[in-house]
Amino acid sequence: MLTRILVAACLAIFSLSAFGHTIEGSDANFVQAIDGPAIFAFMYLGAKHMVTGYDHLLFLVGVIFFLYRPKHVVQYVTLFAIGHSITLLFGVLADLQVNAYIIDAIIGLSIVYKAFENIDGFKRLLGFEPNTKIAVFVFGLFHGLGLATKLQEFTISDNGLVTNIVSFNVGVEIGQILALSAVFILLSVWRTNASYLRHSFATNTALMTGGFLLAGYQLSSYLLLPPV
Predict the structure, then answer these.
(1) What distance in Å separates the CA atoms of residue 126 and residue 100, rounded to the nearest whole number?
(2) Residues contacting 127, CB < 8 A, separation 6+
(3) What are the φ and ψ backbone dihedral angles of 57, each rounded to 5 degrees?
(4) pLDDT tens digits for range 95-137
(5) Which residue, 201, 227, 228, 203, is CA-closest to 10?
(6) Is the Cβ–Cβ distance between 62 and 209 less than 8 Å?
(7) pTM of the model
């Protein structure tokens, strides 16, 4: 039963990857029409973007999977937040042009990396353990670039640009806190059951599979579709 659920989850991730977590519909129209500071609106958009950003959330699930104390969760999530805040702000404000497909592929591989680390893959196969804190920070930089590429798809008015981008970033942090709080509670409840450790390998294998699917889809799009 568990195997079926994990496979279904991976297939769902693959189908969702075709649409990604872009800003679209009325949200997209709003972003392009706004002229001037819109603090709360951009905070809402940032929070919504993070909560629906399954690739970012999957990576963070991998990060906190074996973190049992809230203070440790805060440490790692803070490193991630600092990383993606730097590149989100710099990427948009400095108009840093990067290929969205390549960045999203790296984000997919970040999920693979963390899940592989969770099952002691580096230690077992390569005989060393990477510095997790550095890795989380570095991948945070790439995740921030991923967020920046979504905003760069639109023509945003220079009037109030800094305020709006900072507000968007604050919203991303709020969405991240809300989503991770829910995930941490669910993990904490699951940890009270013996099945947690028994199925931890299968769960992280599913995370790896999802990461490979995301990365593979993005790389295929990079090779087959026009540049974005």
Answers:
(1) 31
(2) none
(3) -65, -40
(4) 888 888 999 999 999 999 999 999 999 988 888 888 999 999 9
(5) 203
(6) no
(7) 0.84
- The domain locations on the chain are 53-224
CA distance 206 to 135: 20
Q: Long-range contacts of range 67-76, CB-CB < 8 Å, 24 or more positions apart? A: 68/191, 70/184, 73/180, 73/184, 75/133, 76/132, 76/133, 76/136
The angle subtended at Cα 177 by Cα 175 and Cα 178, nearest 5°, is: 65
Measured distance CA(202)–CA(71) in Å, rounded: 26
Quote the tokens at residue 184. 């941490």
- What's the rounded Cα separation, in Å, for the pair 13 and 173? 23
HSE (side-chain half, CA atoms, 13 Å) at 46: 26
Instruction: Give one word for 127, left, alpha or beta, with left for phi > 0 and alpha for psi -120 to 50.
Output: left
Token reading at 161: 């640009």
Token pair in block for residue 78: 């803070």
- Cβ distance 118 to 66 under 8 Å? yes
